[in-house]
Design brief:
This protein has two helices and two strands; from the N terminus they run ααββ. The protein is mostly helical. A two-stranded antiparallel ribbon has the order 1-2.
């Protein structure tokens, strides 16, 4: 018998209170910015070197994105998770560049923020990034 691991994905549908909507929209805009940066960087590296970047290869380019005057408000773990998700999607679709993620307008992309839910003694704690 062959043994393989089945990954279960659980989708949480939560109602977000209005006071948090603007904050989550800002985070989704920053996620789109990182995703688009990875898309542009991957295209430039493919033109120069004819190779695709993996999720790990993006890390040196995203090193100081959460520090400085114009820093993102996302934790670095979330930024790394976005880069890995970009590499995973590009590898599955088998294209050089993916569609540009838009943050505004009528045809904007749906907001996506990587987070994990952990349980501590019966309480739920939401954290950004992966908790593997």
């Amino acid at each position: 018998m062959s043994s393989y691991r089945v990954a279960a994905i659980r989708v949480l549908r939560l109602r977000v209170k209005d006071k948090h909507a603007a904050w989550l929209c800002d985070l989704a805009r920053e996620v789109n910015t990182v995703f688009n940066y990875c898309n542009e960087l991957s295209g430039k590296v493919f033109e120069r070197e004819r190779r695709f970047l993996s999720g790990f290869d993006f890390w040196p380019f995203l090193k100081g994105v959460t520090r400085g005057d114009c820093a993102l408000h996302l934790p670095i773990q979330a930024v790394q998770e976005i880069a890995e998700e970009y590499a995973r999607r590009r590898r599955n679709i088998k294209k050089i560049r993916l569609a540009w993620r838009k943050s505004g307008g009528a045809r904007r992309s749906l907001g996506w923020i990587p987070f994990s839910v952990t349980r501590n003694e019966g309480q739920k704690e939401v954290t950004f990034g992966s908790c593997n």
